[in-house]
Amino acid sequence: MTKGKPSSRAIEASITFGRDDAASIGRDRIRLLQTVARAGSITAGAKAAGITYKAAWDALDAMANLFGQPLLETRVGGRAGGGAQLTATGLKVIEAYDKLEAEMARALRSVEPDLAGSGVKPIDLMSGFFMRTSARNALRGTITGMDSGALACEVAVEVSPETTIYALVTKSSVEELGLCVGRSAIVLVKAPFVMIAPGATPPAVSARNCIRGTVRRCELSGVNAEVVLDIGGGKTLAASITARSVEALELAEGRAACAVFDAAHVIIAID
Questions:
Q1: Is 186 exposed, middle or buried (0-12, 13-18, 19+ CB in 10 A)?
Q2: Which of 22, 52, 29 has the alpha carbon at shortest distance from 191?
Q3: From CA 166, how far away is CA 262, in angstroms rounded?
Q4: Chain centroid, CA 69 distance in Å
Q5: Rounded distance, CA 21 to CA 72, Å?
Q6: How does pLDDT run across 80-95, given as a tens digit for each residue?
Q7: How many whole angstroms separate alpha carbon 45 and alpha carbon 93?
Q8: Radius of gyration in angstroms for the set of CA atoms belonging to the chain, rounded to a whole number
Q9: CB burial string 23-36: b at 16+ within 10 A, e below
Q10: What is the DSSP letter of 127?
Q11: What is the DSSP letter of 20?
Q12: What is the pLDDT of residue 82?
C-alpha cells in the first residue's frame, strides 16, 4: 500500500468449516445449500450453482456428515413431485455462517491498521482457526467407549443411533486430544480405505468396522467407481472401488450393502 493513499481493496472474510484431514465446507457449499433450498430441488439447485448433480450431492453429504444432522429434507417424485427443503438445522447453519462471516470481516477490518507495513495480512491471523481435510468421509459423533491397551486405545464413536465407528489411536493421541467418553468428535475415513460387501449381513472379515447401509448412489468413471451408502440418521459413507467390482457385486441404488474398513484407518479430530 502506498503511504497516504487508501487501499481500493476491501478485506473480505471467508469462513471454512472443516476438520484435520476432511473436505472443507466454505462459502461455496453454504451458497449451494441456499440455492437448493430456493430452487426447491437438488437438480435445479445444482444447475443454478453451475455444478453437476453429483457434485451437489457430494457437497450436501459432506455437510450432513460434518454437522451431524441432515441439512435438507428430500422427497421422491410422485403426485406432488420431488423436491428439497431446509431442515431446522440447515437454517441454523446458514444463519450461523452468515453471522460468523460478518463478525470476522469486522474483526479483520479493526486490526488492519495495526498490521500496516508489517508484511502480515489480517487473514493470516486466522489460518490456524480452521482445519481442512482430504478425507472423503467426515462424520460427527459422540465418544461412547474407550478400550485402552499398553500402546493403543480403541475409541468408539456413535455417529447415529444405528451406527458406531471404531478408531484405533495411540495412547499419546488420546492424551493430546483429551479424548473421553461423552466428548464430541469427528471420525475421518478416506474413501479408498472403505470396502463394500453386498447384502445386509456383515461378512466374516477381521476389519473392526462393518457398517450396514443402503446404496444411495453408484457413480462409474472409467475403471473407477464411487459408491455412497446411506447408513441412517442422515449420514452417508463413500467408498472408492473399481467399476469391475460394482458389476461383480451387482451394486445398485436401493440395494443393501455393508461398508467395511479397519479401525487403524480411522482418524479422530476434535473441536
A1: buried
A2: 22
A3: 8
A4: 11
A5: 25
A6: 446 888 888 888 888 8
A7: 18
A8: 21
A9: bbbeeebbebbbbb
A10: T
A11: T
A12: 60
Q: Which of 195, 198, 244, 236 is nearest to 217 (CA)?
A: 236
Q: Which three cell numbers stand for residue 265?
A: 484407518
Q: Is 182 helix (H, G, I), strand (E, B) or coil?
A: coil
**For residues 16 and 264, what is the distance between their CA atoms, to the nearest angstrom?**
27
Q: Indicate the Cα dihedral angle 198, 160, 31, 188, nearest 10°.
A: -70
Give the domains, in start order, of the chain with CATH numbers: 8-134 (1.10.10.10), 137-188 (2.40.50.100), 191-262 (2.40.50.100)
Q: Say what the pTM is.
A: 0.63
Handedness of CA 238, 239, 244, 250 (dihedral sign): negative
Asked whether the predicted pLDDT for residue 130 surpasses 50, the reply is no
For the sheet with 267-269, list strands across it: 163-170, 152-160, 137-148, 184-189, 267-269
Whole-angstrom distance, CA of residue 165 vs CA of residue 184: 13
Cell digits of residue 168:
484405533
Residues 45, 49, 54, 58, CA torsion sign? negative
AA letter at 55 = A
Length of the chain: 271
What is the grid cell recorded at 197?
Answer: 460387501
